[in-house]
Amino acid sequence: MNSEKNYITEPEKKVPVRSEVDVLVVGGGPSGIIAAMAAAEDGLNVMLVESRSFLGGNLTIGLPILGFLGQKGNQIIKGLPQKFIDKLKEQDAASEHRPCPLHMSLTLVEQEAVKTVALNMLVEAGVNVLFYVFCAGVVIEKNQLKGIIIESKSGREAILAKVVIDCTGDADVAFKAGVECEKGNETGGMQPPTLMFCLGGVDTDKLRLSIAEEPRTYLTDFIPAEYFGQNNQYVLVGLRNHIRKAQEDGLNLPTERTILITGLRKGEMWVNMTRVNGVDGTDPASLSHGEIEGRKQIEDIQKYLIEYVPGFENAFFTRSAPFLGIRETRRIVGKYVMTQEDVLSCAKFDDAVAVASYPLDIHHPVGGGCTLTWCGDCYDIPYRSFLPGKIENLLVAGRCISTTHEAMSAIRVMAPCMAMGEAAGRAAKMAVRDQVQPSAIDVKKLQEELLEKGAYLRPAKENDADESPVEPTRFNS
Predict the structure, then answer these.
(1) φ/ψ (deg, to 5) at 337
(2) What are the mean pLDDT values of the chain's consecutive 10-residue runs (477 residues total)?
(3) Residues 6+ positions from 50 with CB-CB distance below 8 Å
(4) Cα of 149 vs its chain's centroid, Å
(5) CB within 8 A of 436, min separation 6: which ones?
(6) Taking the mean position of all CA atoms in its chain, how far away is CA 355?
């Protein structure tokens, strides 16, 4: 059989210019929302484009926001991300930042409220939001990115911009612009995605108290049993013996651990247990396989929870996430590549524009296991990791910044992505105002603005000579 692809030649045609803007944000997930908000703060012409019909990205799939608090319990993500949470809290659509021994902190959000609150905040800020369009190409002259080509039911159009921020999570704009990108580990293996789903009618108190009162029966990973006795909103990771027993009884369960997240509403539990190894989030056929297989897995997972886990006796299926939760795809190779050593050594950088504390959290590309490694404190994210090596007028924010596979596993969660979005948005605004490339802005001035607007950055290196290093802690599951 001939495996070579066939090709056609598209006829050359003129592409109409839909808009010309100061800053164009591509992608309306956690980093994109905050980037657009920051870029538009003092009146620039800012547009955000999104392929779906709503904002929020992974904020809408049932996951908690991880990482607002650091490993020492202090809040390290502030500024515009906190302003967004405050707006959600006004509608009882977000919890407090709850400390968690495994994930540093949990912030529960109501998925539907995220869509509305994010959109309202951007519209009020004067951002032009355009849904239902894909980034199909780029407009580039030599090494200068001038805009993107969008595709929609109206056909192809161009949007020109002085600065573009790639918040797609998959480095779509950067990749199309010819930026060098990497995927996965040394063999190309990427962390598997999850199709989240939600059950109603769960007695969440019965479950947590069962763990607190019978810890030898209901074993959890790393999180002590007493935590569940003290917290009515929680993430549960563990119950491995129950998984094994169900598998021995014939249920097909794709993971070694039970992973559950309480919702904000009474009786609601989100389930993070589907796993589809080998999915490439940049390949539509692979994504389609992931969606199909993920939905197949839900039936046995639901049966397992109802028959083997206390509190689920009367549970019923309510909804699934609108799309697969992708943990990893492309990462750009930028002016600085963040490494595992940077994370574990609590690295400080002169050009730090965000701080994170979430551990290395690698869901193994093969099998159902996971490895977490904590640094003991927090680490800086440098501005250079937002900058592609050769293409100008482009910033990248979110999980696809310039990192290694291992470092990406730490910075990929939503609170750090939101902090990166704020830094990128403010950097783009400065570049436009000062009429320079994003690579040439005054980073000290950016840091001053971030601090002035309420973001958190650590003190300069010279002020921390007395700090003693912290030994990393590792947990294999």
Answers:
(1) -105, 110
(2) 81 95 98 98 97 98 97 96 98 95 93 98 98 98 96 97 98 98 93 97 97 94 92 94 97 94 96 95 97 97 98 98 96 98 97 97 84 94 96 97 97 98 98 97 98 94 52 64
(3) 27, 28, 32, 129, 130, 131, 133
(4) 25
(5) none
(6) 15
Block residue for tokens 């014939």:
250
SS3 assignment, position 19: strand
d(CA 97, CA 110): 14
How far from chain centre, in Å, is Cα 144? 28
Phi, psi of 75 (to 5 degrees): -80, 125
Distance CA 297, CA 272 (A): 11
Query: What single DSSP character describes residue 66?
Result: E
The label of the residue with tokens 């009884």 reads 249
- Tokens 């950088």 label which residue? 349
Q: Which residues sit opposite 302 in a β-bridge?
A: none
Reference 447, options 470, 471, 419; nearest CA is 419
Burial of 453: CB neighbours in 10 Å, binned 0-12, 13-18, 19+: middle
